[in-house]
Predict the 3D structure of the following.
Amino acid sequence: MKAIVSVQQVEASVPDLSDNTADLDRLLQALGSTAAGELPLSVPYLCMTAVAREFRNAGFKGYALLNNLEKSCAVVGFSAEKPDCIAAMALDLGTTHLEASLLNLQNGEKLATADLENAQIRFGADILSRIHHATATRRQQKNPEPDFQDGGLTELQKSIITCINGLAETLSEKAGIRACEIRALSVSGNTTMTHLLLGVDPFTLCREPYIPLFNRAIGITARQLNLVIHPVAPLFIMPSIGSYFGGDLISGILASGMARSEKTRMLIDVGTNAEVVLGNSEWLIACAGAAGPALEGGVARMGMRAGAGAIEYVSIDPETFALEYRTIGDVAPVGLCGSGLIDLVASLYLAQLIDIRGKFRNPAKETDPERRKFMNKHLQLRDGDFCFVITATDANATTEDVVLEQIDLDAMIRSKAAMYAILRTLVNQVGIEFEELEEITVAGAFGRHINPERAITLGMLPDLPLSSYRPIGNSSLQGAELVLLDEEARDECEKIVSSITYLELNVNQEFMIRFSGARFIPHTDPSLFPSVPVVTRLEG
Amino acid sequence: MKAIVSVQQVEASVPDLSDNTADLDRLLQALGSTAAGELPLSVPYLCMTAVAREFRNAGFKGYALLNNLEKSCAVVGFSAEKPDCIAAMALDLGTTHLEASLLNLQNGEKLATADLENAQIRFGADILSRIHHATATRRQQKNPEPDFQDGGLTELQKSIITCINGLAETLSEKAGIRACEIRALSVSGNTTMTHLLLGVDPFTLCREPYIPLFNRAIGITARQLNLVIHPVAPLFIMPSIGSYFGGDLISGILASGMARSEKTRMLIDVGTNAEVVLGNSEWLIACAGAAGPALEGGVARMGMRAGAGAIEYVSIDPETFALEYRTIGDVAPVGLCGSGLIDLVASLYLAQLIDIRGKFRNPAKETDPERRKFMNKHLQLRDGDFCFVITATDANATTEDVVLEQIDLDAMIRSKAAMYAILRTLVNQVGIEFEELEEITVAGAFGRHINPERAITLGMLPDLPLSSYRPIGNSSLQGAELVLLDEEARDECEKIVSSITYLELNVNQEFMIRFSGARFIPHTDPSLFPSVPVVTRLEG
């Protein structure tokens, strides 16, 4: 359990005329192999004077602060007294949102947390538009000079560095320290975000054959990125595997513990893409697909991220048609987040307001008077299509109602179909059944808020006992925290990278067939979902 | 013969959908152990985009540029064509003077040379006054903060960096390249100069027990020192052994080849101190003493460095008393450099114008009419002491004559006595005779201009056949050149550092006795100098 920055007690002999070893040589000799093992041990240029001065002032004994790097060990500080706190920052570098925490590496305590919108959004809401912004200038030049710095890329890098610095300031203020006392930073982000953070050309990431410029970036210190944390603070950037398989997912695998489990597990992380990993301590197989947008609030017109005012829970009683909902923060509803959307669509299905294709039923054709009454109240025709009005304008904080339109519903059905098809294709790939899984770990905001029962109703997740599902929250951030605290976690990242197989779905025929079969609620083959009530109405 | 920056041909497979290895991983894999052996291989942050872009533009094959560092190997460039030239700069970082050369690491060719006065002189002419300047601010503060930057130290560092940048610009201009194309820098300097270059506190260097803050400084790149050469150009700083035993002398040992010689040799380097090393490939013993100033032009009133207008050769015919001299650059004489001083004093002795204690004889007591005539012309009484006027004012470029005063002559005698005592003490320490030495290598301007025969006459150097003496010029610069070109030379530095023993003369009784015995010309015991004519006059 060696943290990325650790303390090593040391006592050296005091120099005299018969032993004029240089101060830093004396320190390094006294630290010797206890500190670094077989790794080379040195004092970085920026720390030479400070380390030597503290070592001397402390009477050539005390506590050395060590950066435990991948292939070397660096002495970056010295103090007479054992430090109580070594602060380090973990960062989930999301495309839209940044979450960070500040840990005390001496005891693992969480000192503070903070989050922030990704300021790069003003250059483009999604990955593709940011890559475009980063490389637009570049593409105008035929033979850019090796030293040529892309204006757009630099803008994006500066923007994200400013965000991270802001988070570092917030965290350190909360913890009562200075930002320059933060001694390490771990970053867990998708491959594009990591490229942009380092100001590295993302041009090839989104073009066939989708090649990252790098997957690993080692030996980077805070000063090189103009971060406000300690200048020699090491950056641990979670390695990635490919353009569509980033360090955030490596973090997820790490945080889920699946790569240390003998029994096979599955990890589902829904962001812009749905990313799914299947495996155990012996092998890992992963794939990603565009199942996410409708669930993340990016597509539905009233969709939104899980934040204040988002409807996160909806229920419609199939007998009494009583409609209930709850918003995050218990404030007036503003929109629907992913879990609310799933709840709503599952409720609409169970209450027979939509058919198995996910199409709104015509109130005029309804025979049940109670249902017809409810439909008349909540289903409205807009531009020739029905939509479902969850809230009336008067109870609404926005100027509009919170409404689910057919187009959003269709996107939702495609997303859930994609999700199920991905999961099914993946387990089939290795020849096992869902029932053989020890656990399905559900990561992210999706996992935190979703009601697996409702997702099963829709046929989005396999029909397993609810106890099979374990939400773990922001696994990207958790992975980043683990690598700060534990050398074994840092080593495990390498193990994960080297043992994982990536299944490409874009060219996968089986996936396309399974996707078509999954575009009904719960599925073309209801026997796959025995726990879901059979609601067979299908109207023209 | 692996240069500090080298080129490695590489050809990688072209990426496709079935092989989406990241560009830089692809390059590192293709380079593999051919490039780095067992050492870790990586791409530094600053080079990631440029290296990847060039690698891709070149069709994933071509020539990688590698920094061959102490404990790792870094890919710092890529080109489709094999580069003809990799420029690297070697620097002799002297206290008063900087000499530099630009080499092509691809073929060892010397592209340019340049030199410059050390601009730190305005903060103090010698090491001690610069250490004082660097630490004056610091000593006023009782408990300086770890991050506290000393004003004086920063001034000194900036000053020397400006000098080095100036030399880099001059060298690159001469060679027809840009300064940022210089890919490495080796620095050979004394311990204080190296501390000041890195902006590292020199406070303890001149205080008992005389401890350097560091002897080795690895992993430093040009960008960290604000140098104008390529940002990731590695600095190879010659290691030092102690406060008074710097990297310049390690360079000298390296350049002399003595640490590779089976037979025992001696190296004499006269700068501010006389530094002497004795040894062979098995062992090395070194010492330093204040024998230098009079020989370097720092003490004699008319003394000067070997430069234009310096009298570098003097002869007085002991029979005809014909006086001849030659100046560097064949211009009007301005002063006396070390070799001129030695020539002059030896000539004065052989012409019996001074006695064996080095005191001017009184013309009034001279019986030989020719000698008396010459003495009357050239010996003048000033403030009660005789002095020797080499030139008449009319032939002189300065407003004064070039004159040797008794006080300078006394300093010269002390210097020559110290030098011989050092050499004698050293050989005696290991129980050998001067005659057993394969060679006496004489480094520096001293070695380049000195006439060993005259130095023997004075009893400064041992009375050996002139063929025993080999002048090698600026060995500090030569050592710096060697480490750029050859990995074995870099390894040899470490071997030298670990095999050398330092003999402290300040507390050495034998040295003090030998010093007293050597304060006559040639020596109290003339049998030690059989080749020197016996001139026995001694007057009151």
